[in-house]
Specification:
7 strands; five-stranded parallel beta sheet; two-stranded antiparallel sheet; globular; 11 helices; 307 residues; alpha/beta
Length: 307
């Protein structure tokens, strides 16, 4: 059977940096489909209306040596998640060669991507954990276009804090130094390290630029993807992917006024500098001092401007 075409691009990260917004923006382009365009949770803990983040490559990467600390997920997770789309393939682990297993999963993943294409020119998928598996991705899709959004780590910490509150992992509204250092060490520094180690091309841009110079940032993304660009089209993309529209359909934010921010919602306004409302000056310095060298190297390598 002839292989399906599969994805044309991937949104590979960073976590808590606006990947859902980027996916929603792109999905509102007439030539681009991107999923999950709506990836929120019901109160039951199940995804509503879509598959959610597929975690495809970081799941397959669990079979590769040396990946234990790279946010991998066991293939057995697919027995119960994502509408059991991959469930029938899981028993093949250990029964066929790793290459045969990968081939089966890639074929199924291609079918999923093509089903999400909807007749559009391009289809892409977004899972922030892919940032740790860039070379592994290239082993299946050499040279595939990759998008990565980078955000002020202090605001990422605040977003991570509220995400933990929303999911019930954290009940204390205060943010401790330990919480900050844990997230910096386990996630942010590793994201930066992965971007620095990768020798291929990634179209990187900052959350701050996407927020402050939205049209210009979107134009850069569309140019990279080689699809149509015009001002009216970009205006429609921005309007259809606005916080108010995304949050209004998020069933995880039950009981709030439509469009109002809620700690239970998947989507937050993502106000630049929101860390000032939650971190002390000492904590902000702690983050900056810990990450300044790595962050500067990433900005230099990917020719990013500080906003």
């Amino acid at each position: 059977m002839k292989n399906k075409r599969g994805p044309d691009f991937l949104i590979v990260g960073c976590e808590r940096s606006g990947t859902s917004w980027v996916a929603a923006l792109l999905n509102n382009h007439p030539e681009v489909a991107c999923f999950p365009a709506i990836a929120f949770l019901k109160e039951s803990g199940e995804y509503s209306s879509d598959f959610g983040e597929i975690h495809f490559f970081n799941t397959l990467a669990s079979l590769e040596p040396g990946n234990k600390d790279k946010f991998v997920r066991p293939i057995s997770n697919y027995l119960t998640t994502h509408h059991k789309y991959f469930a029938d393939l899981v028993p093949y682990e250990g029964e066929v060669s790793k290459k045969e297993l990968y081939d089966k999963f890639i074929q199924r993943y291609n079918e999923l991507c093509d089903s999400k294409r909807g007749g559009k020119k391009l289809v892409g998928e977004s899972t922030p954990a892919y940032i740790f598996h860039l070379d592994f991705i290239d082993s299946f899709y050499p040279g595939i276009r990759k998008l990565c959004i980078i955000r002020d780590p202090k605001d990422k910490i605040i977003s991570w804090h509220f995400n933990n509150i929303r999911k019930g992992r954290k009940t204390d509204m205060t943010i401790s130094d330990e919480f900050i250092l844990d997230y910096c060490r386990k996630r942010i520094t590793k994201e930066y390290d992965s971007l620095l180690a990768y020798k291929g091309k990634v179209h990187c841009f900052t959350y701050e630029r996407l927020t402050n110079n939205t049209k210009e940032a979107i134009s850069g993304i569309l140019k990279y993807l080689e699809v149509r660009i015009d001002e009216e089209l970009i205006e429609d993309m921005i309007n259809n992917a606005s916080f108010q529209k995304l949050n209004a359909i998020d069933s995880g934010a039950i009981g709030r006024t439509r469009g109002e921010e809620s700690t239970k919602s998947h989507y937050r306004k993502g106000i630049i500098g929101d860390w000032k409302n939650h971190l002390t000056i000492e904590q902000a310095k702690l983050v900056d001092n810990m990450l300044i060298n790595l962050r500067t190297k990433v900005f230099n390598k990917y020719k990013l401007m500080k906003e």
